[in-house]
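name: query_chain
kind: protein
chains: 1
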Amino acid sequence: MRIIKEITIWAVEILLVIFLAYLVVAYGIEKTTVVGGSMEPILSNNDKILINKLLYRFTSPKRFDIIVFKPEGKEHSYYTIKRVVGLPGEKVQIKDGSVYINGEKLEEKVEVSSIVNEGLADELVTLDEDEYFVLGDNRNNSEDSRFANVGNVTKEEIVGKAWIRLHPFEIVNWVTKGKNTDVKKETE
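structure:
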């Protein structure tokens, strides 16, 4: 009788561990590999990162968050990693190589090159209440919201926040901390 009780407890513990592992992978944390150089110098090709999939279940992405998303109904079906620039309800435009939010020049959080190809953002882009405008940090080598094959990203398409780079170990969004994140009016 004692052996049956121990085997039952052991089996329940194994099932519980399997269930918890499933929950962590499905709803908590996922590992992925960066493809391409569109987020350089913050993230480079073949960097391994952990995605915090739980955070955006309780909050919304903020400006300058680095997000991981999987575009639905678009050309490709792999994860894409970009920086949030435009938030729901905002108007985004790129002119003279810079990003403008609601007519005000965006004070970038990281050093980026002047944008050569404005793409769809050459004209004013108005974001719906669940859409985000994303750009790669390597602005002139990035397939992002400026182009129709990516477009605006809906909250539903967002997998999570790029959280930790595994080698070298670093909290991804800490790399950019310390600078002003507000939209700043350009003085002429």
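note: The chain has a mean pLDDT of 87.
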